[in-house]
């Protein structure tokens, strides 16, 4: 328990000289965004995921088999948008290969713009999800989440992928003392799960009560703050901005 609390504390407030610096708490904020975004996509956009591509591929299979509540087109569009975003994230990763701060700052700024488009579209539509609104949101959010996933991969912070929890949960159990493991980073892994849960919970509460625009505005604010903080914290090229060894 003591090691779990210490690890959680170091994740939220990294000690001076930590090789990942402020990246863990910044990436936890992005994990909250993922929960919010998938609440929007699943609950408001016709049961499709824009961040969780494992679930989306499964949904595509169900839709192809004739499941009435799922759409083949929506799943395909979400996959295409996500892959395009991931491709863009990969290019950014190459462009900013020597500076993780600039990589995260640029990626979150691009995500902020994409989510701003969704806020504007839903606000103009007064929260009504027409076909046009639905596919605009799927494309923009899919691009943003693909970009985020690719950039998180390039940042290389263990157990903080920001969009996928399967391996995190597996590691939490498989590496535990009960399984004979050393239980590395248990606090960080648990915080990652809780961040996703928090985003999904808050997003679902807002969407289910008719506050779609507010949910997207919250995503927008989290991304914008993350981008600004990354810019300020990476000034002077501290050690953590260097590529992971």
TrEMBL record:
Pfam families: DUF1275. The chain crosses the membrane at residues 26-45, 57-83, 103-126, 190-208, 215-235. Keywords: Membrane, Transmembrane, Transmembrane helix. It comes from the Bacteria. InterPro entries: DUF1275. PANTHER family: DUF1275 DOMAIN-CONTAINING PROTEIN (PTHR37488). This is DUF1275 domain-containing protein.
